[in-house]
């Protein structure tokens, strides 16, 4: 029985989020510069996206560049932006062919102009696709997103549009970049690091966390299947006790 056959299609998460980490270390292991690792990470993005869509995942969020990543050496940031432009441009056709819609979360305005334009073009050109939504987190950090949400809500209170005591979880969620997107049930991080690095803090409140030592460029379809099987063997209790859960 192949790994893929072990996945129970009725028990799939709606949304998988991935912290794609370890490109630099992968490159170093081959005696190459860090950028080489980022270039090779693109294949893992392609394979993971394809596998997720094939299995029937509806939302896949990939953490591609964090707010903090702007502080990396200038050459690495420039190379990442170039790679991003090139990849989005190249993959647009495949996304359409596979009926995948592209979206993005993060401070998109802070991206270089050509990168922003390429991204918006791809988002517009894939907007009608329905099989899966691929969400790129770009110049994203959860604290940035939450700060913005709080500002927006405070402004509405200030303008008398809402009452402070009426603010509820739903209202907060709808002021995040991920408004309308269900929370991820499964969060995967590669490279052996066991941290969240400012990613979707609100949204992963009850996500199952899956860590693998594989470096991102090594991650492939089989690794996604393994993560899904692991997820399906967990008991998600949401604060209840086992006996209260539906059989
Ligand atoms: C993840 O790989 C990609 C980005 C953060 C853009 P890294 O570049 O963080 O690789 P490591 O963690 O240094 O190996
Ligand atoms: C997290 O990876 C951000 C992305 C994968 C885009 P980092 O490599 O930036 O995280 P830290 O700095 O090791 O926590
Ligand atoms: Mg890293």
Tell me about this structure:
Helices cover 40% and strands 15% of the residues. By secondary structure, it is of the alpha/beta class. A 6-stranded parallel β-sheet has the order 3-4-2-1-5-6, with helices on both faces. The longest helix is centred in the middle third of the chain and has 24 residues, at 74-97. One 3-methylbut-3-enyl trihydrogen diphosphate binds at residues 19-21, 63-66, 68-69, 193, 195, 197.
Short description:
The chain has a single domain (11-141, 184-232), classed as Undecaprenyl pyrophosphate synthetase, CATH 3.40.1180.10. 40% of the residues lie in helices and 15% in strands.
Sum up the overall morphology in one term. Answer: globular
User: In CATH's first tier, which class applies?
Assistant: Alpha Beta
Helix content: 40-55%
Class based on secondary structure composition and strand pairing:
alpha/beta
């Amino acid at each position: 029985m192949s790994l893929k056959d072990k996945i129970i299609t009725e028990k799939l998460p709606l949304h998988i989020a991935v912290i794609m980490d370890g490109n630099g270390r992968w490159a170093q292991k081959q005696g190459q510069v860090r950028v080489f690792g980022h270039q090779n990470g693109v294949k893992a993005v392609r394979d993971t996206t394809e596998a997720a869509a094939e299995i029937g995942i509806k939302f896949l969020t990939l953490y591609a560049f964090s707010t903090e990543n702007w502080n990396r050496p200038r050459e690495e940031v420039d190379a990442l932006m170039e790679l991003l432009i090139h990849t989005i441009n190249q993959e647009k056709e495949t996304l359409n062919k596979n009926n995948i819609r592209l979206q993005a979360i993060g401070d998109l305005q802070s991206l270089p102009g050509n990168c922003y334009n390429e991204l918006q073009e791809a988002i517009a050109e894939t907007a009608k696709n329905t099989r899966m939504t691929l969400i790129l987190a770009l110049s994203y950090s959860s604290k940035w997103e939450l700060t913005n949400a709080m500002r927006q809500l405070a402004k509405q209170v200030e303008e008398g549009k809402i009452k402070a005591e009426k603010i509820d979880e739903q209202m907060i969620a709808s002021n995040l970049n991920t408004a309308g997107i269900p929370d991820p049930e499964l969060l995967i991080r590669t490279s052996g690091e066991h941290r969240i690095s400012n990613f979707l803090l609100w949204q992963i409140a009850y996500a199952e966390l899956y860590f693998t030592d594989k470096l991102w460029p090594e991650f492939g379809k089989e690794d996604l299947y393994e993560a899904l099987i692991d997820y399906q063997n967990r008991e998600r209790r949401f604060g209840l006790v086992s006996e209260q859960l539906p059989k």
